[in-house]
Amino acid sequence: MSTLHTTTIGDGPARVVFLHGLFGQGKNFTAVAKAISDLATSTLVDLPNHGRSPWTEDHTYPALAASVAELLRELDAPVCLVGHSMGGKVAMRTALDFPELVERLMVVDISPAVGLGSNFGPFFDAMCGLDLAALSSRFEADELLRDGIPSDTVRGFLMQNLRHEMGPDGHRHWRWQMNLDVLRRELDGGIADWPVTDAIYDGPVLWVAGETSPYVREDAAPTMRALFPKYVQVTVKGAGHWVHSEQPGPFITVLRHFLTI
């Protein structure tokens, strides 16, 4: 039985499973899932070491794909698997290793290539440097993180993982919901990596790239074509890396079309 935390939205005939990116949670796709609820029953997944799913020591793509496959076997597979960023790599690996569970694949702003970690290192430095024991409020946390994470949008996104909860001692404590130690350790290894595989996924694949994002590079196209020979790419204008939150309207339009072709 899968131990991954999930939320189900909608009751449409298609089955869609969403996989979030690094620092994210399944709920990041809530608005998208509601917008396709007439077409699909959507499962929003908290990947291992994120959200309310268990912490693990093995945060490599083969291990993450195996955990997702365990969940898909419990659903009405095969499904449409949608993954963003790190979740896109997990989705790719799941389709390659367990093609019988994936009816179609949508990869959002990431490619099967090495690279992802360098832009995220400062976020880890800022979050790991926060003295949670001395923290008095969420407002104080926001102020203390501001120097290391100057973007209000990014800081707000990361702080969704900051929880103030009752501990076993009967007192409330601040904690990061994600497994910062393991994720930081794996940032330039397991997360930024793309493990070599000879597998091929022959189902329909839609690549959705953000116009201003650097993560779907032209030099990755031969690898994309070798692994996913039927892929088609769409670039969303005005979007960066977080395509589904920066341009939700076009993203939902593209997804709805993909589900009906």
From TrEMBL:
InterPro entries: AB_hydrolase_1, AB_hydrolase_fold. Residues 16-251 form the AB hydrolase-1 domain. One of its GO terms (molecular function) is carboxylic ester hydrolase activity. Keywords: Hydrolase. SUPFAM superfamilies: alpha/beta-Hydrolases. It comes from the Bacteria. The keyword Hydrolase applies. It holds the Pfam family Abhydrolase_6. This is Pimeloyl-ACP methyl ester carboxylesterase. It comes from Luteococcus japonicus. The lineage of its organism: Bacteria, Bacillati, Actinomycetota, Actinomycetes, Propionibacteriales.
